[in-house]
Design a protein that fits this description.
The structure is a homotetramer.
Chain A (H helix, E strand, L loop, with lengths): L3 E2 L4 E5 L6 E7 L9 H9 L18 E3 L3 E2 L2 E2 L4 E6 L14 E2 L5 H8 L15 H17 L3 E9 L2 E2 L8 H4 L9 H16 L6 E8 L13 H10 L4 E6 L10 H4 L3 E4 L2 E4 L7 E2 L2 E2 L4 E7 L9 E5 L4 E4 L10 H23 L5
Antiparallel strand pairs in A: 1-2, 2-3, 3-7, 4-7, 5-6, 8-18, 9-10, 9-11, 11-17, 12-17, 13-14, 15-16, 18-19
Helix pairs in contact in A: 1-3, 3-8, 6-8
Chain lengths: 357, 357, 357, 357
Amino acid sequence: MANTIGSIFRLTSFGESHGPAMGGIIDGMPAGIEVDLNEMQRVVDRRRPGQSQLVTQRAEADQVEILSGIFEGRTLGTPIGFVVRNMDVRSEDYGHLRDVYRPSHADYSWQAKYGLRDHRGGGRASARETVSRVVAGALAMQVLEHLGIQVLAYTTQIGDVKLQPGSPLDWNQTWSNAVRCPDATTAQRMARAVDEARAQGNTLGGMVCCAVMGVPAGLGEPVFNKLNAALAGAMMSIPAAKSFDMGAGRMLASMRGSETLDTMHAVDGGLVYEHNYSGGIQGGISNGNNIFMEIGFKPVATLMRDIDTIDMQGNPVTIHPHGRHDVCVVPRAVPVVQAMAAMVVLDHYLLAKTNHL
Amino acid sequence: MANTIGSIFRLTSFGESHGPAMGGIIDGMPAGIEVDLNEMQRVVDRRRPGQSQLVTQRAEADQVEILSGIFEGRTLGTPIGFVVRNMDVRSEDYGHLRDVYRPSHADYSWQAKYGLRDHRGGGRASARETVSRVVAGALAMQVLEHLGIQVLAYTTQIGDVKLQPGSPLDWNQTWSNAVRCPDATTAQRMARAVDEARAQGNTLGGMVCCAVMGVPAGLGEPVFNKLNAALAGAMMSIPAAKSFDMGAGRMLASMRGSETLDTMHAVDGGLVYEHNYSGGIQGGISNGNNIFMEIGFKPVATLMRDIDTIDMQGNPVTIHPHGRHDVCVVPRAVPVVQAMAAMVVLDHYLLAKTNHL
Amino acid sequence: MANTIGSIFRLTSFGESHGPAMGGIIDGMPAGIEVDLNEMQRVVDRRRPGQSQLVTQRAEADQVEILSGIFEGRTLGTPIGFVVRNMDVRSEDYGHLRDVYRPSHADYSWQAKYGLRDHRGGGRASARETVSRVVAGALAMQVLEHLGIQVLAYTTQIGDVKLQPGSPLDWNQTWSNAVRCPDATTAQRMARAVDEARAQGNTLGGMVCCAVMGVPAGLGEPVFNKLNAALAGAMMSIPAAKSFDMGAGRMLASMRGSETLDTMHAVDGGLVYEHNYSGGIQGGISNGNNIFMEIGFKPVATLMRDIDTIDMQGNPVTIHPHGRHDVCVVPRAVPVVQAMAAMVVLDHYLLAKTNHL
Amino acid sequence: MANTIGSIFRLTSFGESHGPAMGGIIDGMPAGIEVDLNEMQRVVDRRRPGQSQLVTQRAEADQVEILSGIFEGRTLGTPIGFVVRNMDVRSEDYGHLRDVYRPSHADYSWQAKYGLRDHRGGGRASARETVSRVVAGALAMQVLEHLGIQVLAYTTQIGDVKLQPGSPLDWNQTWSNAVRCPDATTAQRMARAVDEARAQGNTLGGMVCCAVMGVPAGLGEPVFNKLNAALAGAMMSIPAAKSFDMGAGRMLASMRGSETLDTMHAVDGGLVYEHNYSGGIQGGISNGNNIFMEIGFKPVATLMRDIDTIDMQGNPVTIHPHGRHDVCVVPRAVPVVQAMAAMVVLDHYLLAKTNHL
């Protein structure tokens, strides 16, 4: 269960940051689906490191090798095994961390759990594991497309630069700028904020919004596998994620019932909500309106400056990180958020097929 | 998977609001644990309806009947079956809703999913199902106590009344006032806010904080069943939950890395964080510091006034609810949040036992 | 996982032999299915104790109370909770066994596992738990009927009396004689064998055949959840089951390939096998031919005579059982085998719906 | 669930016979275990094709590449990803089978399920997938060794040559002869039987016995995940497996209770059974005695002669197989049976750790 997500459409992943490879197995992929592996690779490339100065300079090609489950361009219904080799590994950068616990990192908690760890580049705790998520998500998106379902993800905040409500959103922009913001002007301001932070050896956090359009009513398995619960669990499993808001989210906590009461209109055999405060899900089940949510990410814990911490014996030490790190994870988290949403929605689509004979 | 939560310690629940009974099966309970069923009943009573004017006036005794798994006062290691009868059912109050979709309710989404529904009192979508969660959570808490783990939950906001940082918190207060706030003064202001909303036929939302103390380092199963991911999924499965913040949560998204960098101190073979911004979890694994999180709840969607909506044929209709409803779910959500946290932590405690031979 | 079976259609059960009640929760039942609860009760009655002199004289009404999931005669898609009260409990009959390990019984292994046990009537290890399986199986059969799938089970051997190949089989006979054999003549010989064994304070084992007709090609999830693997696991979980043969089973081990090569004929868009040696499953997936299997049961371990054994301290003791026991479990195992097959086939029918978009 | 086995110690596998690679992910491996990868490779080599004239002449090195989860010779507790490349692929041998359904093969049932299939060498239905099972089993055995648990598997029958009770068994023999029989004389007779069958273009089936020594009392999770149920499901998922006998198995069905009543002796805080008819498991839980079971395998369905069958349109066709095939799967099934037993026992060992706090 630890390294597997999903009930029907399931990803099981493996890989340490500085081991031979990352990879995974996608089980439960429906059979007979035409897949475009070039398109898959393009999606995976969006989270690739080294694409801009804003993110880690580790130079990984992140070339996905598919080992099974696809035959003559179509899915077989059998598991899809894949690997992504770790090429640009500089493990020597991490030798000084072998016996040290970095603050706000997973070093200590993993050591406490397992009694040992691969300290090189964070090992399995590194965000490098998210490459497997994006591979699976990219294929899930190709399936969802056949169903008329589209998954969008984009940056809404970096540091204190926020995408303002009412900004003109151009989805083509999202992947063409380095911060993954669909508004070019805001994107520039965000990029500048990241630049400034880097110059100071500092780091930034931010927020990512995800919207799923075209989801039919009826997805979500009450009471514990509600669609919103599954989305929350999936999103909070992403490294550095610290908050999850469904629809209007925590804003609703301060509103009165009379303000949140949404008006429904019958349209084409379905219902359309005027405000869609609940974000397309009610009682844990999709209602046919757009699903949207927001995920908050903390700043990267590795700062490029002297850091006081302790070693494994509890002695105070000062370290100066010299591995390659993101200044802000948010741009690279955007395709991961998208991938997680795609996997969850496809899984629930398949599950919902079993609600009737 | 739908009605089951947990990997080792697992609750499977059943029950419609106006059917014969609610209930569940707790599987994976460790054997040989002494349990106090009176104490369990006291915990269950905290979410019982009709306790104050602030919540629904449905008069349910919520008497738990244990049917198996406990023998001569100790757990057998076999599944614990239990039922809670629905006594005060006024199904006739809901006859007018048989063919109507209430706005911001689950009526339409459930109908779309299943093709039929028990419309009486919300059926399975009713928050009445949470009684089974509290039964299982109450027993989980008794087990956690043997491990020195304590789970607290309390109200931090109702409407726009917030528990201010620095308020004196008295855990004994929590269960002695109607709003479940550990600060008596704030509790009074919250109660007044609920009273006012009720007088206006309006409803309120709010926030619940949960803290788990005494959790050993090493709980959480990366990468998809991280402790924070499991907690987020569990909390977002509670009816009306709309947001989840882990530790300092979304506040971190606006902070710089240098501000969030937490200082560790070696203490008694473990580590203590100065600020504990991450809420006791790093890389998905507990670090031995207090775990805390906050969950946001939307206002109840049933207002005691004329409501314009549509029927199952899409025709506009006006309804006037006359069932018995909570004005604010937050007070009754507090024991549910506590129960969910207890179940997740116990489940991960047991899972972590399998990390080593 | 312990007390749950199935992936989509899932039964979770609870109950000790001499506790207040047996029961369970059926999750994943498709929505909108008309169910006949009287018919369900009739099926459950077939395994009821006390029906003939051949089985235990414990007088249980085994009245099933449905607590949820069915509304106005149709399934809601929500979990079906049910209880069956234990009425005729004579726990005092078991007082002498509190500190004793009976040979060939589960007393010692359960004590070793859990450190304590409910010794009364075998506790959770009693075959009484199978009542929950039959409740779920009876409902599963009603669903399968809508799909044109029929599940048969019948006794083929008791002691050394065997149903001979070529005997005229009359399915109506199965449930009208005490041994559940579809050939009246053989049934009489089997009944006589059981009578004789009882007269001697002895017990008998036997074999049960199960056939599933009308299963469409395509059910079974390779490679670990093959239909035959799922059936084997389900059948071997029945108390006293000791062998499982799929199709022609172990007979095939002694045959040459040229003898087992089955000829296929294309019929109505499907295939019909001449001999169907493989029992309707190839590569773990149903091929549209009849599925059949045979399950072997050992004799009941409780003999009505002095038995030398040891107590919990390892001291030799002699016990003389005086609880009420079956002389031969086979007749009561027949409806259990049928129930397990029905659950597995329905589960795989629902799973197979997810193989395609 | 389809391509995953186990609850805690879990193998997920992938790979088609003539695709780029086979492989898998082992999740739930306990942390900190020293592993010997050369020893693992030696175990994997035992099922390698081309080792003798008795089995398929496909020349696969079956070199296992470990991609994660092991660091400096010890398990990290993180998932172990591995691949085994398919090197000696002659897909052209299978071109004539693209549109044909072979009798007693999985061609039709897989086509019916998925609507397409990789026809080359049986695709995913090929026994080649078992290489992943042996990799995981080989590592599981290394863990079990630390616990003093040893898993044996050996051939007891090929065609009509049977290992006679009372034969002198020499475990070192098992892996040094081609048929995997621990009695050299019987091994020679078995080898001769296979030779003769091959000369005639015929094939043989047989039986494999598996014994697990040193299992502590208390493993097995009632009621549906009993140790015998888990073993039965695991064994019946092996290609060509058709029967499963636990302990004395079906022999018990013909015996009287008085004959099967086993005498227990208290020894060293545990119990020793005189006959151990039940094969070390009672009530689904290990009792500390040796666990043993027997699995029956059907003859290989591909005969080297003209075979009348039908094509995908239902037209009669005659094929003459010219791929490379085993004459008898039994010798290569022996390490697979051993691997499955090792995985199941280790999984239950870890599960049993959760039965107590």
